[in-house]
Write a structure and sequence with these properties.
single chain; about 260 residues; mainly alpha; two-stranded parallel sheet; two-stranded antiparallel ribbon; about 10% strand; globular
Length: about 260
């Protein structure tokens, strides 16, 4: 039994390594795709902090066109950094929506884990269910091997959505290079000051587990508290006792 589990882990690690190298073989586009279709869909189906999955599932033609646009227009080196970041954020959010509506109704994205579930190695986020530039890709790869690894931008954590109640809510517009900084700033302010996600007090803030899981991303230019104070309406004392809230993985459905 132990040998079988060990072989499973080794196999998954080998697959992960192969996946890393496959990025180099992507077919790229010299011109970034338009995100206008996604912009219109988000305006239609984002309902406050929730999303109308049933509505999108019943009207998929435009959505499928946008997914094909993303799949067939991977970034090339000549794109600006903002064009690349906006593209990959939209890829993550759009294909997360696809994952949910392909399995809808579902109570939680965590219900979609594979039968052989290995935390950090073989989860729903490691499933390669879409292609970018002809290469099979996973949500895990987009988040951790591209967005987090290639760009020094911690605010992406407030822009990507994992289809769960405790995730930063989906923005009701697509991310675009022309106003990316403004969009990311707004996402940071909204999330950190959202009392459903964070309870900010001067001496004992209780904050999202996102700040625990990715603490290193937020501490690149100072402490976690100094990062929070850039956006928080309530000033947090540097010696505050920080606690992390439980994460609600229930689907962020309007129902």
């Amino acid at each position: 039994m132990y040998l079988f589990k060990y072989l499973q882990i080794i196999t998954l690690l080998m697959i992960s390594v192969v996946g890393c190298h496959s990025q180099d073989s992507r077919q790229v586009s010299m011109v970034p795709p338009s995100h206008q279709i996604f912009d219109q869909l988000l305006q239609r189906y984002v309902k406050g902090d929730r999303f109308d999955y049933q509505g999108l599932k019943e009207n998929q033609s435009e959505f499928k066109s946008y997914l094909n646009l993303l799949s067939n227009n991977a970034p090339s080196e000549n794109w600006t950094e903002n064009e690349k970041i906006a593209y990959w954020i939209n890829v993550y959010n759009a294909f997360t929506l696809k994952l949910i509506i392909d399995n809808y109704p579902v109570a939680s994205i965590q219900d979609l884990h594979p039968k052989i579930y290995l935390p950090l190695l073989n989860t729903v986020w490691h499933k390669k269910f879409f292609k970018i530039g002809g290469v099979e890709t996973s949500l895990d790869e987009v988040e951790h091997k591209i967005l987090r690894k290639q760009f020094n931008e911690p605010r992406i954590h407030f822009a990507i959505n994992c289809a769960s109640v405790s995730c930063p809510p989906l923005r009701n517009e697509a991310f675009v290079a022309e106003k990316l900084n403004e969009q990311l700033e707004e996402q940071a302010v909204k999330f950190i000051n959202n009392t459903q996600m964070n309870v900010i007090t001067p001496n004992n803030p209780r904050i999202s587990k996102i700040f625990s899981w990715f603490k290193g991303d937020f501490k690149q230019n100072g402490s976690l508290i100094s990062f929070l104070n850039k956006y928080s309406d309530t000033h947090i004392n540097e010696d505050a006792d920080v606690d992390f809230l439980e994460y609600d993985w229930n689907l962020n459905d309007i129902k």
